[in-house]
Amino acid sequence: MSSLPQELVDRIIDEARDDTPTLQSCSLVSHTFLPRTRVHLFETIGLSTVLECQKFHSLCVASPHLTAYIKNLGICTHYGGHNHPVLEDPSFSALMSLLPVGQLEGLKMMKYHWDNISESSKETLSWHSFRSVVLDTNLVTDVDSLYTVFKGSTDLDLSFEGIIGELSQFTTMAPPAAGPSLVKLRLEGYSDPILQSIIDTRTYPFAVNNLRSLSIIIQHLGTVDLLKDILDLPLPSLEHLSVMHRVRGIVPTHPTLNISRLRSINVSLVEGDTSDPETLKWWVENLKGAMDTSMEKIVLDVYLSKYQLRPLAGTNNVWSDFARVLSGSDMSHICDVSIIFRLSYSQAENLQLYKTVVETKMALLIAGGIISISILGEPCASPSLPFAEYICLE
Q1: Are 261 and 232 found together in one domain?
Q2: What is residue 102's predicted lDDT score, i.e. its pLDDT?
């Protein structure tokens, strides 16, 4: 294969991105490729078994120049212990020691139970200064573990989907030091202890002075109160908020969110319906309270779950109120409002009727090019996670 023209080799690899056996075969002779091909193969590596980790460590020992190309690392195991945790095998710490400090940029851990991670393995991960971290379906023992693992990171983009077991012991005393600075934070699952610890300490397990984007999925009403508290913190860099609702309705007594500083908001009412517009009413009230805001963009994604859609008086009123708020002087910077309605394809006729009612209420803003309304056929999904694809060596 080394005798083939480099352009042909690159084309073979490009066409075989989803063909794992071919990519594995390519990796065995990658030492004969030009540097740009090595980057293509080794920039992102996934390790799901101890054997994979041992083999890849052996490959890096035999060809030490390959370690210079590794930027992202994916680690996967199973909760039930069917796989011996990759992090606890000596080959993992040996592999990490081959990588220059500061080189690894991305980490994705999937299906990991942090009770199985020893303190020495946590310290091994903390050697590296990650910029992007995805914890996908993780069971994390406590908030302190997050601090231990990522204390060496800076300007971190963190996505957490899973369960945090306990609050930090430092919520009632001074934390040891400020945690790594976050620039983006996305939370899904039971992550309330992370928010509570940040609210209590402002710096632990993560500092939020440089936080620019916050995305949160609300699965129970208690999270709404935490969202209010964290938005009340001095967050000078925060510009974007994304909220996905997975509870039906919002209790009307919930306080108004402090969203005046934001430039953009994305709200997904995943289980919204026309007979109970309380969640939408709550967001309209939030916008009313945003005095002298610099907000420029709003995306409202509504999944209508009722089979029989008949726009009711309460629904008409909330959309009229929404139009008045957007037309007010406090919203003078608004230039892009996207309203998306979703329902199964079998309900397209009913959904079109509902869309027409909303268009009537928003007619002036639509004519002015500020609002666009569209219909899509399926419920919105959670945002995709960074570097979801990676190469596993077997």
Answers
A1: no
A2: 85
In a domain, 241, yes or no: no
Q: What gap in Å lies between CA 304 and CA 272, rounded to an integer?
A: 5
Same domain, 221 and 311: no
Task: Let me know if residue 93 belongs to a domain.
Answer: no
- Tokens 């639509």, residue located: 366
| Strand spans (E) along 33-177 | 44-47, 72-76, 106-110, 132-142, 156-166
The full length of the chain comes to: 394
Residue 307 domain-assigned?
yes
What region, left, alpha or beta, does residue 133 occupy, with left being phi > 0 and alpha being psi -120 to 50 degrees?
A: beta
Q: Within this chain, do residues 160 and 269 fall inside the same structural domain, yes or no?
A: no
Phi and psi, residue 255, nearest 5°: -70, 160
Rounded to two decimals, the pTM is 0.82
The parent domain of residue 311 ranges over 256-394
Residues 323 and 357 in one domain: yes
Cα distance between the two ends of the chain: 21
Position 345: which residue type? Y
**Residue 181 DSSP symbol:** B
**Contact call for residues 99 and 124 (beta carbons, < 8 A):** no
Q: What is the pLDDT of residue 28?
A: 47
Residue 42 confidence (pLDDT): 82
* Angle (deg, nearest 10), helices 119-126 and 90-98: 20
Cα 262 from Cα 325, distance rounded (Å): 16
Nearest Cα to 306, choosing from 268, 280, 352, 273?
A: 273
- 316 inside domain: yes
Q: If we measure between CA atoms, which residue out of 366, 363, 352, 242 comes closest to residue 304?
A: 352
Give CB contacts under 8 A, 24+ apart, made by 51-59.
51/394, 52/86, 52/392, 52/393, 52/394, 53/86, 53/89, 53/91, 53/92, 53/95, 54/89, 54/91, 55/393, 55/394, 56/95, 56/393, 57/91, 57/92, 57/94, 57/95, 57/98, 59/27, 59/393
Examine the domain organization and report whether 231 and 261 are in the same domain.
Answer: no
Residues 266, 364 within the same domain: yes
Q: How many domains does the chain have?
A: 2
Mean pLDDT by 10 residues, the chain (394 residues): 58 60 54 54 87 92 88 79 74 94 92 88 93 92 90 94 71 68 94 92 93 93 91 96 80 79 91 62 90 91 66 70 90 92 67 82 93 75 45 39
289 with 220, same domain: the answer is: no
